[in-house]
Amino acid sequence: MSDRNQARAVFLGGPGAGKGTQAKRLSESFVFAHISTGDMLRSQVAKCTDLGNQAKILMDQGKLVSDELIVAMVKDRIAEPDAKGGWILDGFPRTLPQAVALDRLLGASKSLQVTHVVYFRIADGVLELRLSGRRNCSKCGAIWHVANKPTCKDGVCDLCGGVLVHRADDRPEAIQKRLQDFHAITAGPLHTYYKNQGVLREVDANRSQEVIYQELVQLMQ
C-alpha cells in the first residue's frame, strides 16, 4: 500500500460483516486510527465531556443521539494526534445526511477528503448466523462465536475469564430489524452516494479474515 498513512477510509457493511475486525487489524498494522462510533460514544460518556454528557441524557431517555452530536464527536476524534496519520471510520456515516455532514466537516481540500470507501458485501442469511451466535466478553470486550470461535469453557472468555453475554441486538428478533434498517437507511443511499464520488470499492466479506485483509491492503492503495 503506497502512502498508507494518508488513508481516510469509511467501512460500510451490515451488522456482523467484519468491518470492525478488519479496521482494528489495519489500524494495528499501519498508522491508522480505528474510529468506532460506538466506542467513541462510550468514551465520551465515560470522560464526562460536554458532548458525552449531552449524549448520555439522550441515551438515558431511550432516544437516538442526533447527527449533530455524532458529527461533533467525529470532528473532535479525527483531530486527535493518533488520527493525523489517517483513520478508518467504522459505523459512521450510517445515513445520507451523516455522509453529507462528514464531507462538509472535511471541507473542500482534497488533502482532507475521504480517500477510500469499502463496502463489505455479504448475504443477510450469513449475517444472521454470525450475529445470533456472537458472544461478547463483559469484561474485556473480546468477541467469540458459539460455532465459529468457541471458548474453551462455555460462557467464559479465554482471554480474561470474564462472563460472555449475548447482546440484546444480536438476538433473532432484533437482527431482522437491524438488517432492514441497514438496507433502507445505509446500504442503498450510501452505496450510491460514494459510487458517484468514485471512491467506492467492494469486497466479498464471506471469506476468511486473512483473505479479506490481504485484499483490503491492495484496495487501499
Question: How does this structure look, described?
Answer:
It contains eight helices and eight strands; from the N terminus they run E-H-E-H-H-H-E-H-E-H-E-E-E-H-E-H. The protein has helices spanning about 20-30, 35-45, 50-60, 65-80, 95-105, 125-130, 170-195, 210-220, and strands at about 10-15, 35, 85-90, 115-120, 135, 145, 165, 200-205. Helix 1 (about 20-30) packs across helix 8, helix 2 crosses helix 4 and helix 4 (about 65-80) runs parallel beside helix 5 (about 95-105). It is globular, with a radius of gyration of 17 Å. About 25% of the residues are buried. About 45% of the residues lie in helices and about 15% in strands. It has one domain: P-loop containing nucleotide triphosphate hydrolases (Rossmann fold, 3-Layer(aba) Sandwich), CATH 3.40.50. It is an alpha/beta fold. Residues about 1-5 have low confidence and may be disordered.
Shape: globular
| Low-pLDDT segments, ≥5 res | 1-5
Number of strands: 8
The CATH superfamily is identified as P-loop containing nucleotide triphosphate hydrolases
Distance separating the two termini: 5 Å
- How is the largest sheet built, in terms of strand order? 2-3-1-4-8
* Radius of gyration, in angstroms, nearest whole number: 17 Å
The CATH architecture designation is: 3-Layer(aba) Sandwich
DSSP helical segment count: 8
Element-by-element helix/strand order:
EHEHHHEHEHEEEHEH
How many structural units, i.e. domains? 1
CATH topology: Rossmann fold
Average predicted local confidence, pLDDT:
89
* CATH class term: Alpha Beta
Largest sheet: 5 strands, parallel
Helix amount, in percent? 40-55%
Q: What percentage of the residues does DSSP assign to strands (E)? A: 15-25%
